[in-house]
Please model this.
Amino acid sequence: MYLLFGCGVYVCLYLYLKLKKGKCNSKKTLEGKTIVITGANTGIGFETALDLAKRNGRIILACRNAQKGEEAKNKIVQLTGNTSVVFRQVDVSLMSSVKSFVDVIRREENKVDILINNAGIVVQNKIMTEEGLELTFATNHFGPFLLSTLLLDLLRKSKGRIVNVGSAASVIGKVDCDNLRAEKGYSQLQYHNSKTATLLFTKELARRETDVTICCVHPGTVRTNVFRHMPLPVKILISTVFRVLTRSPSEGAQPVLFCALDDSIRTGGYYMDCRLCDHSLWVPKSAYDVGLAKKLWETTEKILAEC
Ligand SMILES: NC(=O)c1ccc[n+]([C@@H]2O[C@H](COP(=O)([O-])OP(=O)(O)OC[C@H]3O[C@@H](n4cnc5c(N)ncnc54)[C@H](OP(=O)(O)O)[C@@H]3O)[C@@H](O)[C@H]2O)c1
Model:
């Protein structure tokens, strides 16, 4: 009896989550469009790039590891026949690397239509980069901030779009502008905090920028390498009991594609399951704190000037 009830609950939950997921139904083609996507060699980024390549855009796979980047490029070219897919090296946790990457893009492209800040990392312990930034914030906040602001003029030329891949984990994140380099201590919620910063950055840039659309998206809980630093029991739970709650990388790419392609996207908006989720329970109240967003922007600029 209990077993039957359990199975019933599981099936209902499965169907509910499957229907709720959302799908990018855009039939848009991308001939003549240039798309930059970071962390495109695996996971959500790879699946997003693959779909965009099928739409015949010029896709720039911005990855930190040359071998992985070239392999991803070759695979996408082979699967889609799109020979305008290229790999360009960037480590978004290093500001010097972001600047060099932007120099390359400036030399090679006369505009950028879509920038997808997808690269992201979860780390358990405090690690400092050679530039004096804490690794989680360097990768998830400072790198995307610098890349976006340096590419703004190329994006403006096409009235382009920036998609920041955030996370529902931001709902319990907090941003302390006096601790962006973990100088006052490292929080176990550093990833969550960095994704709250992603939301604040999205909303502040939308307030400052009129020619480029910017939005933030939570892709869902997706079975990718992002969980590689989690303890083994958590990883086992995610891939077994909680599998029903998770998505495949190609399903996780759907909300990102929706944000990159759909005409309904509102600048400054936060999206989940291919719909606007602003003011839902998943959004931290601090995301709407205009003073905090301004302070984060100014502190970020100040820290970047020191890098
Ligand atoms: N999976 C989820 O459940 C989930 C949920 C919410 C949000 N997200 C977000 O979705 C995005 C994609 O994550 P994913 O799940 O697809 O994870 P993933 O499989 O671990 O992919 C992350 C990608 O980012 C790249 N990357 C990491 N650090 C980088 C750096 N310093 N410079 C350049 N590239 C770097 C990785 O490169 P390497 O292969 O070289 O490591 C990889 O290509 C992330 O922003 C993540 O926070 C994921």
Q: What stands out?
A: Residues 135-156 form the longest helix (22 residues). The longest strand covers residues 58-63. The radius of gyration is 19 Å.
